[in-house]
Structure formats: structure tokens, C-alpha cells
Inverse folding.
């Protein structure tokens, strides 16, 4: 397909989309409107299960099965990346030269590292109370670990980051979510139903029934997944080189 | 005017991302454009869920029923997709690296010429 | 007041999104994308979605640009000749 034909198709498709989308927008309920039937029901359901953060209740209680699907997409995407970026036969590892890091940067990163990890853990643990949860906290945890790469060097990062352990953690997080779902059957109700343990006292750390547990499973999976992803990408970008003459 | 502008902005972001995808000369750039397209859906979803004078549906420092709330359902949809979308972006970037390895180019036009 | 904030952050998002598409060099695009992530996080906060803002902040302004920069580095290291002039 030539460039010109492609631009024509793009123009026709773009204009068609713009016209239809604008027409649809005019008939949508206006921005900031007062009618949110699903939202109101979700809030009521969350309060009934004593979960203070309604978004966590929607994700891990009312739509927990959907989140299992999302999580599986994440798992599959990470698996695919790991398979695609494995070291092939015609590549070899070249250990990177340790670089001089300015002292200020090094101190800043090393002070920030524990703070960032604690923040990540806090965000995962308080997902059922305040904004946060497994998805966000997991990413914070994983990126926090990479402050070590900024503060020290790649070698130091590799020592605290045995990729195999994190790959295991990724799978264990996914598995824990499934097991918590199956526990619903044992408790005599349906898959992923929030009835396995009591709902606790509203607005305390132990409220929301299985929501905090599912949050932790997701937090573990996301943190490990992001660490594995970044490890593969860093390996490719920093270490792995093609052998000359192949 | 205010009642449709956020939706139209979402549409604009989507179209801009599509334009970038179609005219991209570098596969990594194309993946970045796809991330732009993706962000338009978050803008649309959250715009649909907004309520004038509403507050976030989090009761850790709010008495239930004391203030109008924005829609938590669309927020939950956007929230999971932000993180899952990033891993899918990573998968696409891994594919780009493989393409670069196998074909020695990351220009979509050159790649289609290779196929013949 | 809130309307003004929403409008300002909406246009910031639209502008950075357009810039992210127009900037053709992927390494520069990664930087614009991280600004876009930041603008989106601000917009989501204004729209009363702190959960989404938090994940957008972590993912959009740190993770995705980092992944893109690493891929660019890998692709460049393969010694493409015409990369430099793009």
C-alpha cells in the first residue's frame, strides 16, 4: 500500500470517526451530570461490605472476576515478553562497565530507596481504605527497587534482584488470586464471592473481607511482573550483544 | 459548552494517536502513539463518570452520604487498564526488538517492502 | 473554579498528546510521554479520581517512558545507519 493510499484511508476513517463521535457526544449525558445509576449502586454495595474505598470494592469485590481477567492479561503479556526477550544462541552477555555516579545522586537515591519501598507497601496495604491498592503499589514497589540502578550500578541491582524469584512471585500472585477465588466455594458460595471471612469494622485495616487479601495478591503479582519486565529490558539494552560476524 | 468539551478532547487525543500510528516511520514511535490512543479512553471514561461538585468515592475521611460522589465504576475500569496497558506496551516493545533483530530495520515502510 | 481547572488540565493533556505524536524521534517522544503521564495524573486528580491518578503517575510518567528509552537504546545499539538523521 503506497503512502498516498494510506493517507487517504486515514483521512476518510478519521473524518468518519470524528463525525460519528461528535454526533454521539452531543447525545451523551452532559459532562458533570447528576445521573450515575451504576455509581450509586456500587457505592451502596461497597458500604454493605464495609469497604471504605469504593473503587477497590468495585475492582476486588463486585467485579473481582473481571479483575482476574485483567490480571491474566498482565500475566500473559509478561510471559510473552520474557519469551521474546530471552537470550538467543547468537547473543552473548557483556557485563557493563561500572560507571561513576555523582555522590549527590548516589546519596539521594539511597535515601529515597527505603522511603519509596515503604510507600509502595503502604499503598498496597491500604488499598481498601484510601486511594491505592495492588496495581498502583506494585508499580511503585518495582520502580523503587530500580533506584538502586541509579544510585549504585547495574551489578548492585542484579545482586538484590534474582529474576527467577520474581518470576516465581509473579506466578504465585496470580495463583493466590485464584486460590482466594476458589475459597469462595469452600465457604459455600460462588467463585470470588466476598464471603470467605468477615467484613470487619468499617474504615480499619482489616475491613472489606477478601478485598485486602486480593489486593496483596495483585500487588505481589504486579510488583514482580514489573521487576521481571524491567530486568528483561535492561538486560537487552545494557548487557546482551550480538556476536560479531553472525 | 462545558458539557461536551471533555468528550471532544478524548476524541481528539484518539485521532491524534491514530494519525501518529499511520504515519509513523519508527516502530517504537508507533508503540508510543498507541499509548496515546490508550490514554484517550481513560479521559473519556473519567469524563463520563464525573459529577459537578462531586468528590472521590473514598470514605476514609468522608461520612457516607454527606457529599455527592463521582462514579466509581468507570474509575475502576480505567485503573486496572492503566497498569495492564503498560505491560501490553512492554510486550509490543519486545516484539519491536525482535523485528529489529530479524530484519535489521524498524521502519514499517521498509518492512512491508521486505515482505514484497 | 473547578470548571476552569478541568478545562486547563484537559487542554494540557490534549497539547501534550499532540506533541507526543508530532515528535518523531522515539527518545524525545518518551520524554513527552512522561509529561503526558503527568498531565493525565493532574487531570484525573481534578476529576476526583485519585486511584487512577496514582497508577497513571507511576506507570505513565515512569514505567512506559523507561521501557521506550530502553528499547530505543537496544534498537540503536544494533548500529542502524539512518537512525541518526531522523
Amino acid at each position: 500500500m503506497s503512502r498516498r493510499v494510506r493517507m487517504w484511508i486515514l483521512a476518510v476513517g478519521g473524518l468518519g470517526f470524528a463525525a460519528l463521535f461528535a454526533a454521539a457526544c452531543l447525545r451523551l449525558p452532559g459532562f458533570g451530570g447528576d445521573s450515575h445509576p451504576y455509581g450509586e449502586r456500587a457505592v451502596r454495595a461497597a458500604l454493605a461490605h464495609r469497604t471504605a474505598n469504593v473503587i477497590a470494592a468495585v475492582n476486588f469485590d463486585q467485579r473481582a472476576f473481571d479483575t482476574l481477567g485483567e490480571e491474566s492479561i498482565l500475566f500473559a503479556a509478561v510471559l510473552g515478553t520474557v519469551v521474546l526477550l530471552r537470550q538467543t544462541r547468537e547473543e552473548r552477555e557483556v557485563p557493563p562497565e561500572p560507571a561513576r555516579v555523582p555522590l549527590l545522586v548516589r546519596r539521594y537515591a539511597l535515601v529515597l530507596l527505603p522511603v519509596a519501598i515503604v510507600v509502595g507497601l503502604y499503598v498496597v496495604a491500604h488499598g481498601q481504605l484510601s486511594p491505592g491498592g495492588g496495581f498502583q503499589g506494585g508499580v511503585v514497589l518495582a520502580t523503587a527497587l530500580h533506584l538502586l540502578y541509579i544510585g549504585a550500578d547495574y551489578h548492585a541491582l542484579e545482586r538484590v534482584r534474582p529474576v527467577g524469584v520474581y518470576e516465581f512471585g509473579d506466578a504465585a500472585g496470580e495463583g493466590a488470586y485464584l486460590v482466594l477465588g476458589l475459597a469462595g466455594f469452600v465457604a459455600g458460595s460462588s467463585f470470588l464471592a466476598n464471603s470467605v471471612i468477615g467484613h470487619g469494622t468499617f474504615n480499619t485495616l482489616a475491613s472489606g473481607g477478601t478485598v485486602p487479601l486480593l489486593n496483596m495478591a495483585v500487588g505481589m503479582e504486579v510488583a514482580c511482573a514489573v521487576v521481571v519486565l524491567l530486568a528483561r529490558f535492561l538486560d537487552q539494552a545494557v548487557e546482551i550483544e550480538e556476536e560479531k560476524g553472525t | 459548552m462545558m458539557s461536551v468539551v471533555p468528550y471532544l478532547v478524548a476524541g481528539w487525543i484518539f485521532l491524534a494517536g491514530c494519525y501518529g500510528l499511520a504515519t509513523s516511520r519508527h516502530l517504537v514511535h508507533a508503540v508510543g502513539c498507541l499509548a496515546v490512543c490508550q490514554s484517550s479512553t481513560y479521559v473519556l471514561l473519567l469524563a463520563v463518570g464525573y459529577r459537578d461538585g462531586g468528590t472521590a468515592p473514598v470514605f476514609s475521611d468522608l461520612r457516607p452520604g454527606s457529599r455527592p460522589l463521582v462514579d466509581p465504576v468507570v474509575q475502576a475500569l480505567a485503573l486496572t487498564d492503566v497498569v495492564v496497558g503498560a505491560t501490553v506496551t512492554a510486550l509490543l516493545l519486545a516484539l519491536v526488538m525482535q523485528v529489529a533483530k530479524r530484519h535489521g530495520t524498524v521502519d514499517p515502510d521498509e518492512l512491508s517492502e521486505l515482505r514484497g | 473554579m473547578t470548571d476552569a481547572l478541568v478545562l486547563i488540565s484537559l487542554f494540557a493533556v490534549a497539547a501534550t498528546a499532540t506533541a507526543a505524536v508530532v515528535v518523531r524521534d522515539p527518545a524525545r517522544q518518551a520524554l513527552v510521554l512522561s509529561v503526558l503521564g503527568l498531565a493525565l495524573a493532574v487531570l484525573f486528580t481534578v476529576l476526583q479520581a485519585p486511584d487512577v491518578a496514582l497508577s497513571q503517575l507511576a506507570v505513565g510518567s515512569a514505567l512506559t517512558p523507561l521501557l521506550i528509552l530502553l528499547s530505543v537504546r537496544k534498537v540503536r545499539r544494533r548500529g542502524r545507519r539512518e537512525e541518526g538523521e531522523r
In short: Chain B has a mean pLDDT of 90. Residues 90 and 107 of chain B are 19 Å apart (CA to CA). Chain B touches chain C through 52 residues (CB under 8 Å).
